[in-house]
Task: inverse folding
């Protein structure tokens, strides 16, 4: 599953509601690690970190990466290459984040927390259809970092999924 995007099933109602998650590490015997790509906090790095070292990064958006260790901030970079597709650098230093932010086509974000699964947990959730796995495409880098990203990607799976992506949370309330 490493490198896949996980799209939350429409009926998932917990903290992963309508999320797009990049699986960064996965080994069935060790579990999995990933970051939610579309959960903005409305904050930028400058709102959370002060000082000269963070000044060049002060306008980088902060996203909620998942429910684990939400008191820790990490910098991550995403970029696309024709040969390898989506690439990433996780838990990079402030210096590396600044260098990456200066590269054309490179998207740097800061994440509060991450998403993690114990051995077998992600596989179990996949068998229960809690997640839909898909390959990332280049437009993920330019996509809105909110529910619209989920709606767009989920709607691409099939015509039925497009209808589900556009449906309200509880269609019986219409």
Result:
């Amino acid at each position: 599953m490493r490198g896949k995007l996980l799209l939350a099933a429409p009926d998932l109602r917990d903290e992963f509601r309508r999320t797009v998650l990049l699986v960064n590490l996965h080994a069935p015997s060790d579990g999995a690690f990933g970051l939610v790509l579309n959960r903005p906090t409305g904050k930028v790095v400058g709102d959370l970190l002060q000082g000269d070292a963070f000044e060049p990064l002060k306008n980088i958006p902060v996203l909620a990466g998942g429910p684990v260790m939400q008191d820790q901030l990490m910098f991550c970079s995403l970029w696309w290459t024709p040969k390898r597709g989506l690439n990433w650098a996780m838990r990079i230093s402030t210096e590396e984040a600044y260098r990456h932010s200066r590269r054309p086509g490179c998207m740097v974000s800061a994440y509060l927390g991450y998403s993690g699964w114990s051995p077998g947990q992600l596989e179990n959730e996949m068998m229960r259809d809690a997640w839909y796995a898909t390959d990332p495409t280049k437009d993920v880098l330019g996509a809105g970092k909110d529910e619209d990203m989920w709606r767009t990607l989920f709607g691409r799976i099939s015509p039925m999924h497009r209808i589900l992506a556009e449906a309200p949370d509880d269609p019986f309330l219409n």
About this structure: The first helix runs from residue 45 to 48. Helices lie at 45-48, 94-101, 121-127, 147-155, 159-166. Residues 5-173 form a domain with the VC0467-like fold (CATH 3.40.1740.10). Strands lie at 5-8, 20-27, 31-36, 40-44, 61-64, 68-81, 85-92, 107-117, 131-134.
